[in-house]
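Dear support,

We are seeing what looks like truncated structure output for some complexes. This example has two components. We would appreciate it if you could run it in full and send us the complete token output so we can diff it against ours.
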Amino acid sequence: MTFILADKVAPYAWFPDGASSFVPQVDTLFTVIMWICVVFFVPIVIAMGYFMWEFRERPGYRGSPEALHNNLIEITWTVVPTMVVVWVFWEGAMGYLDMARIPKGTVDVNVTAKKWQWAFKYENGGEHEVVAVTDSVVKELPLLVLPVDTDIKIIMRSDDVLHSFYIPAFRVKRDVVPGRYNYMWFHTTKEGLYDLFCTEYCGDNHSQMLAKVKVVSEAEYKKALEKAIQEPEDPLLRGQLLYKRQGCSTCHNAGNEGANGPGPSYNGSWGSKVTLETGAEVDFDENYVRESILNPQAKARKGYGKASPMNSYAGKLKDAQIDALITFIKSLKEAPKPSK
Amino acid sequence: MSVVDRPIATPSHSEVDSYPTHHFLNHSSGFLSWALTLDHKRIGLMYLVGVMSSFALGGLFALMIRIHLWNFKDGWLSNQTYNQVFTLHGAIMVFLFIIPSVPAALGNFLLPIMLGTKDVAFPRLNLMSFYLWLTGLVLFLTALSVTGLDTGWTFYTPYSIETQQGGAVLAATFGVFVLGFSSIFTGLNFIVTINTMRPPGMTWFRMPLFLWATYATSIIQVLATPVLGITVLLLSAERLLGIGIFDPKLNGDPVTFQHFFWFYSHPAVYIMILPAMGIISELMSVHCHKGIFGYRMIAYSSIAIALFGFLVWGHHMFTSGMADVTAVVFSALTFTVSIPSAIKVFNWLGTMYQGTVSLNTPMLYALAFIFLFTIGGLTGLPLGALSTDMHFHDTYFVVAHFHYVMMGGTLVAFLGGVFHWWPKMTGRMFNDKLGIVSAIIVFVGFNLTFLPQFVLGSRGMPRRYANYLPEFQPLHQLSTIGSLTLGSGLLLALIVLLMSLVNGKKAPKNPWGGATLEWMCSSPPPHDNFSSAPTVGDPYDFSNIEYDGRTGSYVKRS
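Here is the complete output from our reference environment:
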């Protein structure tokens, strides 16, 4: 099967290489189910083809109308599939209960999902860094660093709508539901870089709500944790980092980075007069930026009031961080506006 | 129970087969004679035109999706447009095509004739169902096209509460509400008709299996559809009044909406597939010229599927964070549905054994159904099993699985049924050779479209993505090529049908050799279906039905 299905892009047929302790159970069960399917499907197709040929309508042949009922056969093809599905159910349920029972002594990661950005927070309060990627529509993705050979617990929360946290290499998936915490756990088994997808439809850029998961050695993980709590001293660099880390880049363009919409671009905004939805004009200055971060709907810019509404960052950013973002936006004073 | 030792029926129309000059199509003329008709056959035909047009529209959206996905990025649609297109595709196919396709179009035409009656129990209610369907269609299309609904056909909260396309959500849910009533009235009508209007001699176990399937479907329609009505009302109330049942900002629970929604929408899957199974039972026996194998098991399994179908909705929510026990129970219940479905497949194969298999267009569609539905059913196993579902949930594996069931199953059976009863409905024979070609192209194109999607899903490709990682591109391109092949096969099928209206030979009374009552009246049937009440025999007794080369029709040897 692998031989037929593996192609030049992927050396495997069905599942990507696995990197969690759930992989053996899931992959084995799937392989067995595959063979069960083959054992049912192939004889059905062979019988169908044989009957099509053997009993085809042709001159001089007339079928016999006798075979209409046979208790033994009918009971057999009811009981055998029943036994098979009972076994499949049992295996699936046992594997699932392992996934659902979270062990003690895990390394915890807080995951916050919002349109259309993943945010990871480590146990020491540090936040995820961002990595450049080449294989995706998005140029930069949040990176979740995890230690190898460790039980990891993921605590998930959504800021807006439903999302779903899916790492194919770990064979795990769980919806992120607003208004409650959902949990997931897994045991990492192999170092490497893996994909993370959002698998519950969440609006415009659902398909760009991706992240990377990097499983590293214990020592490297410690280093990553230390780095995670640091923000640069220089306000401009700090603003740049926050722009990506806080998810501003998912809606606002800055320089030649970030999504061009639904929010307005930062380029060439500083110092200009901004026309609001109400028709009034205000100065784009420190106070306007601050208010737009803390209370985004208060002075919505004309043409953007009906765009996907931005959530307030009140309580999420310190004053020094807002200052850094202001410095960053100020630095884009001369940058050309992107074409819509 | 053996069916062969039943008394042989005597045909009520012993006169030589003749082409009728007066029939339901020319019984009266003018726009109003159709618009205000109470004739179930005309209502059925109007539904047929309606659902086929809806299908064409939904199909065009499907092709737009597949063409957009040719490259992993920078497709020809923006993300927003892509999201609206897949919403349109799903919503139109589910609410406007699949649910009414077989019951409302073919069911309306066939049910009274198969029962040997003049019409359904409540002809006026029947016409009202049609107009409700039409109203729903208009509301729905307005919502979908003018304001750009982008919630997916499932309207999941809180996205459907928050999305900017608020007018679209309200109009579409109101459309769904009205369409639901259309469905309920049709189901009610069929239940009463089958219960009270069966002719003397037609006991429950002498009913054609298409009627068993329609009966089971009607039960689901009547019992489940009201819940959909309640759900969309609650959703509208949440949007307009903020009652706080689904919206987490108001202390509601968005998962509650999923329970409500799937309590209808999972049984609705059986509203879609059961009538298709009924069609296949008819097609297999008629074109094998042999009684159906295991009649009682097929009949019971229709009822079993209808009942079990009510208990499995939770499997759409395995990853939503339900309690573990709940998930395990729903998984167990889910597997119960697989058994009656498997039994049917085996029985259809048993019907071919020692039969006389005519490999014509309807039969090839029926055989394609068995092949595709078996794949659809078997790939349900790794989705019903909990641990493997954690990997497959909301990936292309699921997309491929339900297309094998819904499209490879229901649509292919619907096409087989349309070809099978086309001579009866229109009085014209179609070009069988071209019909066979269409069936083969559809079969090949379908597999080329959806087999790669199983592999995509297992490799981790999530559904509803407007762009994707480059490693998925080759399989997506294969799927797109398949979809274009499939589209051309379906177009050919339509051309074959339409050509028959222009230059098709006149259809005889019984061109395939069927034993059910609809083959005892002329093609097309007269306004009153039967001039005198037909005598009911065994619907699957083919022992004395023989081909008459003189008229091109099968006749009953007396």
